Amino acid sequence: MPDILVRNIDDALAERIKAIARERGWSINEVIVHVLRHSLGFGGEDVTRREIHDVAELRGTWNPNESAAFRKALEAFEKVDGTPLFADTKKTDQAPK
Question: I need a surface site. Which of 12, 19, 58, 86 has the fewest CB within 10 A?
Fold first, then answer.
């Protein structure tokens, strides 16, 4: 399939495309292809199914609960009492006994 670059998209149009992508859980590309297919009269196949090689599907995302749990887990690292998490077992500043 060929790739097509579209230039000079105004801010309002770009924001609407992004909003639709967020609402439907689609990539921006999926929204644009959907709009083009339907506006040119092709309709038919919807973009609701992604192929497995789609990068947006492979990258994964965290839902709000997962993000909150991760942030909470990171807080433990911020509360370390000044001691290093990992100590160097080699003591280079002392002379051998």
Answer: 86
